[in-house]
Specification:
Blueprint (H helix, E strand, L loop, with lengths): L14 E4 L5 E4 L30 H11 L2 H9 L5 H12 L7 E5 L5 H9 L8 E6 L9 E5 L7 H9 L4 E6 L9 H22 E12 L5 H10 E7 L10 E9 L6
Parallel strand pairs: 2-8, 3-4, 3-6, 4-5, 6-7
Antiparallel strand pairs: 1-2, 7-9, 8-9
Length: about 270
């Protein structure tokens, strides 16, 4: 398993897309030299057909079928990664260089640890040069170089608890892969996940260093206009990104804000 640092990555060719909000949206195209650590390197996999067993719902069959035939799930197992989501962060970092050695990173909604695992490798947290602080409501097995705190980020006391763990220093990157449980109603789900993004952004404003980075999950439809406008005031560059590791049928999207203006009012 290879995890080159962002600083040494080969050039990445991004596909630029203009979204409805009028900001650049990139879909990362991984160079051939990087594909050895991703799916599709062992030849074309045979499709696994899942039969409906007694007591197994149709939705369960669909989920199992998707998991068994997902090349990123297979690759994650092969590469020793906690989840397929690890490849999303790898692609985004390869394209936008958000993770550098010796940085401090806060990962919100971290379980089962896919993003924290990549961040720890790329900021050299395993050697103590960098630092990764992971936060989630769910329990998470320990990871080398990662400090984990289990709490509900929606709790009013959660930000203070995380700040106490961080200490007096500021952080370089705030990641948020937090997602609310799906209701099945697209607009409701969109508003709920934008709400989580808003809470994460408020927290990021308090702890980010000047020129810091914020990356958070949203859904297709992008970031709400008011929130997007606020981000453009607080950061030098704001864009929506959709890594290829996101499932094609998924409405998942990420908002990436770089170059935090430390003078931004909280």
């Amino acid at each position: 398993m290879v995890f080159p640092s962002g600083a040494g990555n080969p050039a990445v060719s991004p596909l630029l897309i203009e979204n409805a909000a009028g900001i650049a949206m990139t879909k990362s195209k991984t160079p051939k030299s990087r594909r050895a650590s991703g799916p599709g390197t062992d030849g074309r996999a045979l499709k696994v057909k899942v039969k409906k067993a007694k007591g197994r719902s149709t939705s369960s069959v669909r989920w199992l079928d998707r998991q068994l035939n997902d090349p990123y799930v297979t690759a994650a197992k092969r590469d020793g990664l906690r989840s397929r989501a690890a490849y999303k962060l790898m692609e985004i970092d390869d394209a936008h260089s958000i993770l550098q050695p010796a940085q401090t990173v806060v990962d919100l909604g971290a379980a089962p640890g896919g993003w924290s695992q990549i961040a720890a490798k790329r900021v050299n947290a395993e050697t103590g040069a960098g630092r990764v602080i992971a936060v989630d409501l769910l329990a998470m097995e320990s990871l080398s170089g990662v400090e984990f705190i289990q709490l509900d980020f929606d709790d009013e006391h959660a930000p203070l608890a995380i700040e106490e763990l961080i200490g007096d220093t500021k952080v370089d990157v705030v990641l948020s892969d937090m997602a609310a449980a799906s209701t099945g109603h697209r607009q409701t789900d969109h508003l709920r996940i934008v709400g989580l993004c808003e809470v994460a952004l408020d927290f990021a404003r308090k702890i980010l260093k000047p020129r810091g980075t914020f990356l958070a999950k949203v859904l297709q439809g992008g970031t709400e206009k008011e929130l997007l406008a606020a981000m453009k005031k607080d950061f030098e560059r704001v864009r929506h990104v959709k890594p290829q590791a996101s499932r094609a049928q998924s409405s998942e999207l990420y908002v990436l804000a770089q170059g935090f203006r430390a003078t931004a009012k909280i």
